[in-house]
């Protein structure tokens, strides 16, 4: 009897595995997983923004990233960084204000030698540009931030800080020879449900040869008093501190090389970095699915979210008080250097 029971159990396992494998190949599992992830998004990040899912067969799969050595980028410029935040010190919610922000971004990219283009979608406009690498087979790295705000907030930290760093890294690396192509993007309407990044990721040509994505969202606020740092429920690591003086690098666990590029092991002068590999693309931790890295996770592209943790630290989150004078300039400048170094490292990797 026990023998037949064992054989019966084995047959059930084989049958279940066959069904699941067949379902996956027919995109049933892919659809289920996609819908599950998007259902985990917050109220402002609903599944309604998804126009069409792209299946793995439609795009070239990302290759594993290797970072044999860290590259130190040229030094970032604090004055330039803060000038960007001050220039964007206005609510970027209505079309006219977002257009003003786009003009600022485009003009600064052109000054740094880039040729930006606009990618329009039903609800808004993304600004994109790229600098070809020396090795066409090495693929590309995308560095991106959203430029819109919620209504009523000038969004210094959320997310003029991210925009400022992308502009500064673009300036620094514009003439630096790299193996990989550097793509940059400024996403529209993140605050209305990740609309710009979903629109970007819905275009197969944007994902072709993409080896990894770096998303900057709120990277300029620090707090140094005990108890000022909070954490989301279900965090798979022990919180390092109740002070908000560190940078968080959150990535999918399947792409550890992306996360490692920003671990900041080489300099004690820069802010400490907490790295968080997220299993199962964040299904168990919906608070980690609230920014523009999510559409890339959904499509099997390795991505990291670099953040000061936003509302888990800042009392100015989505408020009128999110102004330039609340930015911790030393912390912010250090974060910019970490991003510049990590991006240069990934670009040089073959």
UniProtKB/TrEMBL annotation:
Keywords assigned: Hydrolase
All copies of domain Peptidase M28, residue ranges: 126-341
PROSITE patterns linked: ARGE_DAPE_CPG2_1
Pfam families (UniProt xref): Peptidase_M28
UniProt xrefs under SUPFAM superfamilies: Zn-dependent exopeptidases
Protein name: M28 family peptidase
């Amino acid at each position: 009897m026990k023998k037949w029971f064992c054989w019966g159990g084995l047959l059930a396992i084989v049958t279940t595995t066959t069904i699941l494998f067949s379902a996956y190949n027919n995109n049933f599992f892919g659809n289920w997983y996609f819908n599950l992830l998007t259902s985990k998004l917050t109220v402002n990040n609903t599944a309604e923004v998804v126009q069409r899912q792209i299946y793995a067969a439609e795009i070239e799969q990302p290759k594993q990233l290797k970072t044999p050595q860290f590259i130190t980028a040229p030094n970032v410029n604090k004055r330039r960084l803060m000038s960007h935040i001050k220039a964007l010190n206005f609510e970027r919610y209505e079309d006219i204000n977002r257009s003003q922000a786009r003009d600022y971004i485009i003009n600064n990219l052109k000054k740094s030698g880039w040729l930006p283009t606009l990618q329009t979608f039903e609800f808004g406009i993304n600004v994109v540009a790229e600098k070809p690498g020396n090795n066409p087979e090495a693929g590309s790295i995308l560095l991106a931030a959203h430029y819109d705000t919620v209504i009523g907030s000038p969004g210094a930290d959320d997310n003029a800080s991210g925009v400022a760093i992308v502009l500064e890294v673009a300036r620094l690396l514009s003439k630096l020879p790299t193996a990989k192509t550097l793509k940059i993007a400024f996403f529209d309407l993140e605050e209305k449900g990740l609309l710009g990044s979903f629109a970007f990721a819905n275009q197969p040509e944007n994902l072709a040869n993409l080896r990894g994505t770096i998303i900057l969202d709120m990277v300029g606020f620090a707090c140094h008093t005990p108890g000022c740092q909070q954490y989301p429920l279900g965090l798979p690591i022990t919180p390092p501190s109740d002070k908000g003086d560190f940078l968080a690098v959150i990535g999918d666990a399947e792409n550890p090389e992306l996360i490692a590029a920003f671990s900041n092991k080489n300099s004690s002068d820069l802010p400490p970095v907490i790295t968080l590999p997220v299993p199962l693309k964040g299904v168990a931790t919906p608070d980690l699915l609230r920014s523009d890295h999510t559409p890339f996770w959904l499509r099997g592209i390795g991505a990291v979210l670099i953040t000061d943790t936003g509302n888990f630290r800042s009392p100015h989150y989505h408020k009128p008080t999110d102004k330039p004078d609340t930015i911790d300039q030393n912390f912010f400048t250090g974060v910019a250097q970490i991003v510049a170094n990590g991006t240069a490292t990934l670009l040089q990797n073959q």
